[in-house]
Amino acid sequence: MPSFDAYDGTRLTYHPRGEGEPLVVLPGGPMRASAYVGDLGGLTARRRLVPLDLRGTGDSAPADPATYRCDRLVDDVEALRAHLGLERMDLLGHSAGGSLALLYAARYPERVSRLALITAIPWALGMRATPEERLEAARLRKDEPWFADAFPAFEAWLRGEGAYDPAFVPFFYGRWDAVAQAHAAADEEQTNEAAADVYHSEGAYDPPATRAALAGLTAPVLVYAGELDGGPVPELAGRVAHVVPEAEVFVQPSAGHYPWLDDPERFSARVGDFFAG
Known about the structure:
By secondary structure, this protein is α/β, with parallel strands linked by helices. The protein has a single domain, classed as Alpha/Beta hydrolase fold, catalytic domain (Rossmann fold), CATH 3.40.50.1820. Helices cover about 35% and strands about 15% of the residues. The chain is built from 11 helices and 8 strands. It has helices at about 75-85, 95-105, 130-140, 145-160, 180-185, 185-190, 195-200, 205-215, 235-240, 260, 265-275; strands at about 5, 10-15, 20-25, 50-55, 90-95, 110-120, 220-225, 245-250. The radius of gyration is 18 Å and the shape is globular.
């Protein structure tokens, strides 16, 4: 896989796939290797995806743990842009990668052509998904056969009264089918848990400064939410549009946190059209 050196010499790897103009992809997790994004529902038919393995994940080298903090990853993204030889780039951030994308756009607004935030909780803007929002979304699944076993564990975890339990993972997917189950099973081996603990750590975000910087962003922004997702719920995703200029919101019906798995054709068409301008 192609690689390049970051500002401090850390060797970073990316995984290009598909044809067309490059679209840089920042994975979530946080600190999950980029393999989980796959071809983003067939988006590779329209764009050459460039998913980055963040330092300490996937095929990228480990580094000083302090550099795993979200704001300190911004210059890795800038180093990738320079390595690709792009004056400006299209950028897509999924989940926690959405905050990294927002911080990049705030620091380097002139380098962003278009930005898509896919089911991204906007931590960088001082917005978080509350337990109440997550539970409200979870209750939409009450007719699912796994709900009765999953909901109590999910509620306890969100209330801080229980540990993470794989039983409630179905809440993150719009369809708990074989594809979703295989996707979820890969999470543990793809995620650097120690690095994930650092990603959102103290000092990572300065929401007032980020909001002020983004007020001057001229690039079009797509804020993409899943109807069944609890993090973020569509209403929370919609609030980003009041902060970022030139933003539009799209809510994919019956979708969870990984909308390209729930309805690949709808996802790739909507996101592909956005980046086509």
